[in-house]
# Entry
Amino acid sequence: MKYLKHLFYAFLCSTLLFVGCKKEESYDELTSLAADKIQQAVKLTENISCSDLKECRVDTLYYTYVPVHPSFEQAYNKLITEAAALRERAQKVYKGPIVYDTSVSPNYLPPHFGIRCIAGKLKVASARDLELSEINQRLADLLPKLQTFFDDIPCNDPSKWHIAPFRKDCEFISILYTDKENFAEFGNMAEQYNHLDNAKRTLDKSLNCSTTNDKPAKGVICESNKPKVTY
# Structure
């Protein structure tokens, strides 16, 4: 009996010693492991055959867009889940100073224009992946929608209206906007327009426009319940 008691205490001490010596989790190590999981997930989305285009979906993955195919979606989701768990553990062990980031979010992503077959591989297209003809058509479709988006809102207080500058080739255009329930829709269209316009200026070598607006807008007035730009 005495022997068993000593054996029990020896086992208990060794267990406590093992637990006490267990390596403490490191923030840097955990974030590195999470990043590795994300890289593995991204690799799964590379080299997808163009014949699989219709079966793929677009996923937003932290810092990029990726095409996800059903053939690897389960493995992809597992890696993303594991990465999220590692990030959560990393935050719990973080002991550094609190950093207040006032810059633009590093997770910001520009608008995408669907999954395309580019250079023989599937890719989630940015504005710069489009042909100039498609860019011009998209710009032509978006501009009137932006210009008329707030036509149903009466102007009673000019201070509630604001001016958003846009470019149409070499022309500067002022579009008025105010608060509206579906304002996000306007914001999304505006973001698409600006990215498409920037892509056009990169592709269209015939454009040689001044970057200075010779007639900038000064403000907004209400005239017959309609907002009007003053110059």
